Amino acid sequence: MADTATRDAVARELIEKMDALAAGLSPEQQTEVTETVKRNLEELLPAAIDAAGGRKYNATPEPGGELAGTKYARLGMSEIDVQFLHGMLTAAHSEGFSKRGPPEELSNLVDAITKRVAADEGINLRAMDTTDTSSLIGAQYVSTVWDYAMQQAKVAPLIQSFTMTDKTGYIPVFGAPPVPLLYSESTQDDSADYTSQDVNFQRVTVTASKFGLHQKWSGEMEEESIIPFLAAVRKRQTDAIAFYGDDVLVNGDTTIAATGNINSDDAQLASNNRYTAFDGIRHAALVDNTTNVTNAAAALTYTHLIGLRNLCLDTTRFQDWSHPVNPNEFVYLVNPGGEVAISDLDELITVDKYGPNAVVLAGEVARIGRNPLISTMAVPQTEADGKVSATASNNTLDQVVAFNTNAYSVGYLRRMTVEAYRRPERDQNGIILFWRMGLARYTPTGAASGMVHTAVIRNI
Question: Are residues 254 and 131 in the same domain?
Answer without folding.
Answer: no
